[in-house]
């Protein structure tokens, strides 16, 4: 949809609302619903909102120690400027359009910590090497037969899942859920988000949906719209869709495997090599070298919550060490595909990631590998990576935050403001979780101690 099409739709009454939104630190869409008339009159100026949306905690707490926004500077405004290339129908709501925006200061200067800005900066850096990135998110989530109110009234425990039995990969299970999955696929397609397929994942009530690969910013925007559609269509049907990495310790975790390929200036794969296109080019090898050498620097953006680390257990298809290999689902970085589809699959992230930050982090580390000519850590693994003698991945948010806070890579690639901002995000998230009394503690101690 372009502006002329929007104007026509507003004129004939098929669109009366325009959503302007932008991602926050946690990968949630924050935004406002504008009357379509007002949007057409004022869209170029952008939409003002409080800059707290880029500093608040996971529970929307007013966390301290952010330079961008806080009590010290009075929580100033920022402006979300629509990226008109993203204008599309928000098809699961009637008469509604959507546009993603970039967060800037009122003087139109960039906000370095804004997730879309961080990814855009890394794409500029990548272009300086004559390269272009394409990404695809492979997202998993759980469906629950609950409403936000019923889940709250239960204290978010003993929740009723959409299903109680295992039927992974079966047609029967997706047929049972087609009342939800069908509208999800079709509405996303109508919104300009190309869906490849949907399937029943391993655990009861768990779904996987794969999006078609796209240029990096488009892929990240599509990731966000998929989450929004899944959650909102579920609510319309009296359910909850959750993208927690590990909603229950008795269930499997939900991942977001990130697929990345690079193209050169002619549009050819920069990763493929050999007569069949299944070999690894020097660019692919060096990029993988950067990912494996600098994984601790960027790990915070693959596992951004305390819950993220509950998912990464041995034998669960979630990696626990710095490993890589060809078509091996037990490693952290899986090399797969041929020719134009030759790519690296990052199997570390959970479904709770912010795609802009995860993509940008992969590019930062991979580019460093290209610039420094790094070889991948260890040898390619063809067997069970859980038995490999390989460096361990961070086990806790504390460990990941400490590595991030001390990272020269992050400071060099993203700047001091960004580095300090997200190090504080990690610290504040740890403090919030540390102060919480958990259901586990009550079960263990309430009666017996």
For the structure shown, list the relevant keywords:
Gln_synth/guanido_kin_cat_dom; Ubiquitin-like (UB roll); globular; 449 residues; glutamine synthetase activity; 17 strands; ligase; Gln_synt_N_sf; 35% helix; Creatine Kinase, Chain A, domain 2; alpha+beta; six-stranded mixed β-sheet; nine-stranded mixed β-sheet
Approximately how much beta-strand content do the residues carry? 15-25%
What is the helix content?
Answer: 25-40%
Average of pLDDT: 96
CATH architecture of the largest domain: 2-Layer Sandwich
Instruction: Write down the domain tally.
Output: 2
Rg measurement, Å:
22 Å
CATH class of the largest domain: Alpha Beta
- What is the number of helices? 15
Uncertain runs: none
**Which fold name is given in CATH as the topology of the largest domain?**
Creatine Kinase, Chain A, domain 2
What is the fourth-level CATH superfamily of the largest domain?
A: Glutamine synthetase/guanido kinase, catalytic domain
First-last Cα distance: 62 Å
Structure classification: alpha+beta
The biggest beta sheet, please? Answer: 9 strands, mixed
Count of distinct strands: 17
Broad shape: globular
Overview of the structural elements:
The chain has 449 residues and is an alpha+beta fold. The protein folds into 2 domains: 107 residues, Roll (Ubiquitin-like (UB roll)), CATH 3.10.20.70; 270 residues, Creatine Kinase, Chain A, domain 2 (2-Layer Sandwich). Helices cover 35% and strands 20% of the residues. It is built from 15 helices and 17 strands. Strands 7, 8, 9, 10, 11, 12, 15, 16 and 17 form a 9-stranded mixed β-sheet that branches. Strand 8 and strand 9 form a beta hairpin. Helix 12 packs antiparallel against helix 14. The longest helix has 21 residues. The mean pLDDT is 96.
């Amino acid at each position: 949809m372009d502006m002329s099409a929007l104007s026509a739709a507003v004129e004939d009454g098929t669109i009366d609302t325009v959503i302007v939104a932008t991602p926050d630190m946690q990968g949630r869409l924050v935004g406002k619903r504008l009357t379509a008339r007002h949007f057409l009159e004022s869209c170029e100026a952008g939409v003002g909102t409080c800059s707290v949306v880029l500093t608040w905690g996971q529970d929307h707490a007013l966390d301290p120690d952010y330079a961008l926004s806080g009590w010290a500077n009075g929580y100033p405004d920022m402006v979300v400027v629509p990226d008109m290339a993203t204008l599309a129908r928000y098809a699961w709501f009637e008469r509604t359009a959507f546009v993603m925006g970039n967060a800037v200061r009122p003087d139109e200067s960039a906000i370095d910590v804004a997730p879309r800005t961080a990814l855009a900066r890394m794409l500029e850096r990548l272009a300086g090497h004559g390269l272009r990135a394409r990404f695809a998110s492979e997202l998993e989530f759980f469906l629950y037969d609950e409403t936000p109110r019923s889940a709250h009234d239960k204290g978010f425990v003993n929740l009723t899942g959409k299903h109680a039995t295992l039927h992974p990969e079966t047609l029967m299970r997706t047929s049972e859920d087609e009342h939800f999955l069908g509208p999800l696929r079709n509405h996303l397609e109508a919104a300009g988000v190309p869906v490849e397929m949907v399937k029943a994942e391993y655990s009861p009530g768990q779904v996987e949906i794969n999006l078609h690969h796209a240029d990096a910013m488009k892929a990240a925007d599509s990731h966000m719209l998929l989450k929004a559609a899944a959650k909102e269509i579920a609510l319309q049907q009296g359910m909850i869709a959750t993208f927690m990495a590990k909603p229950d310790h008795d269930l499997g975790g939900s991942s977001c495997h990130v697929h990345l390929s690079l193209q050169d200036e002619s549009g050819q794969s920069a990763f493929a090599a050999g007569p069949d296109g299944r070999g690894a080019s020097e660019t692919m090898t060096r990029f993988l070298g950067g990912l494996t050498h600098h994984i601790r620097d960027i790990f915070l953006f693959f596992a951004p919550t305390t819950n993220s680390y509950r998912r990464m257990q041995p034998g669960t298809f979630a990696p626990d060490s710095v490993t890589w290999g060809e078509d091996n689902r037990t490693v952290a970085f899986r090399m797969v595909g041929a020719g134009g589809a030759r790519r690296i699959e990052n199997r570390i992230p959970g479904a709770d990631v912010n795609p802009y930050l995860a993509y940008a982090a992969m590019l930062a580390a991979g580019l460093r590998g290209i610039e420094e000519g790094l070889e991948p850590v260890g040898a390619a693994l063809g067997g069970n990576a859980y038995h490999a003698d390989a460096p361990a991945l961070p086990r806790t948010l504390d460990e990941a935050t400490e590595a991030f806070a001390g990272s020269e890579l992050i400071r060099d690639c993203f700047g001091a403001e960004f580095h300090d901002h997200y190090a504080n995000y990690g610290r504040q998230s740890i403090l919030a979780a540390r102060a919480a009394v958990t259901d586990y503690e009550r079960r263990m101690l309430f009666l017996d101690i």
